[in-house]
Amino acid sequence: MLNYGMPPGFWTELTLLLAITILLVGIIPAIFRYGMKADKKKWFSYNHINRLHKKIDWTLRILAIISMLVSAILFYREPFLIPLILAILGLSQISTQAYIEWRFSENRKNYQVSLIQLALTFIAYAGVFYWLRHFM
Fold it and tell me: Where along the chain do its domains lie?
């Protein structure tokens, strides 16, 4: 019999994937930041260390917007290209933040937490892309 809609178990797996992603990207780095006594970060704010960091961050954002628009126009048959560009942007922003914190931050624990956050975010992206390939 032909099954319309989502496959069985889709919503259970999606809920589990979202919970694991929130744990990896949001909660575990906050616990590490508290445990390593790194500086607290505000949620949904620009945490620029200096002007160089601000310029690099905005350059990455503008480059990502341009590349997403170009890829949406030129490669419209590739559904995973735009999420891949977003993943590369996210990882490059975190790695830039870790480098700038390593070079210029007074608290040396900040860049270590950013590196942990980079690794956990990479694992989360890899898991999400694997899950999407499994269900698509």
Answer: 12-135
